[in-house]
Amino acid sequence: MLYYGFAIYKINYASKGGPLTMTGNSFYFRKIHSLLGVIPVGFFLIEHLLTNYSAFQGGKQGFIDQINWLNGLPLVLLLEIVGIWIPLLYHGVYGLYIAYTARNNVSQYGYFRNIMFMLQRTTGVITLIFVAWHFFGTRFQVTLGNVEHADLGSTMHQILTNPYYFAFYVVGVVSSSFHFCNGMWSFLVSWGITVGPRAQRVSTYVWLGAFVLITTMFILSLTAFVDPSFSSMSAITP
After folding, report:
1. CA distance 92 to 183
2. What CATH topology corresponds to 25-231?
3. What letters, b where the CB count within 10 A reaches 16 and e where it falls short, cover 91-107?
């Protein structure tokens, strides 16, 4: 079935290319994968966007205030593990399986929605690599005791002043934004929320607009960390 919008929602494929109905545990695994992409992984992306955008909107002090607010939440480490990293790990690993088993047909059927389907899988792989690398260079270093929470802005400054890393981050945030917004379009279709052509067409415009907005805010956040004021975070005490 073809839908209006970002992507075709495809259920499963046989090894010889024929569509199959999801059976057994595969149906539930994919539903869990889809749901976790919105709750809580999608919420985390928006929270991360707003936290980093505070560096652009409020400068160095605004970013530190936001970091301190997050660290002041009760049971913050438990929330991160249970509410972010475990769901993100499942969504990412199972997403790799989906990307590996999916049979893209862009070369045979060069439709817009087929291309979006292929891009969803491609950006998913890029996003997983990007998130893993970003996590290792920032949050994991805090866990190891190599970096303080208050110095994360300085860490980002050191990373992003390298033009190659900056380009890598731009690719990463664009891929992450696309994967989320395109995934939201597919989520609304697959969960029976946007069931008709008109609803799916409207959803396309909404999530295209969201993609542009989220990507712009992320890139503005990256440019903010390049500012020399972030070279040393210890100079400011909250």
Report:
1. 13
2. 3 helical TM bundles of succinate and fumarate reductases (1.20.1300)
3. bbebbeebbeeeebbee
Q: Worst-scoring range by mean pLDDT, 102-111, 122-131, 159-168, 184-193?
A: 102-111
Rounded Cα gap, residues 154 and 158, in angstroms: 6
Distances (CA, A) of 207 to 167, 171, 172, 177: 24, 19, 18, 10
Closest Cα to residue 201, out of 214, 188, 215?
A: 188
108 vs 127, higher pLDDT: 127
DSSP state of 232: -
Distance, first Cα to last Cα, the chain: 55
Query: Which DSSP string do the residues of 72-103 spell out, in sequence order?
Result: TSTTHHHHHIIIIIHHHHHHHHHHHHHHHH--
Rg (CA), the chain: 19
Q: How far is CA 39 from CA 30, 72, 186, in A?
A: 14, 22, 15
**CA distance to 51, 73, 76, 86, 97, per residue, from 29 (Å):** 31, 31, 28, 15, 11
Query: pLDDT (tens digit, 9 = 90+) per residue, 168-210?
Result: 999 999 999 999 999 999 999 999 999 999 999 999 999 999 9
Paired strand residues for 13 = 19
Residue-range domain boundaries for the chain = 25-231
Among 105, 51, 24, 8, residue whose Cα is nearest residue 221 = 51
- Produce one character per residue of 171-182: b if its CB has 16 or more CB atoms within 10 Å, e if not: ebbbbbbbbbbb
Side-chain half-sphere CA neighbours of 76 within 13 A: 10
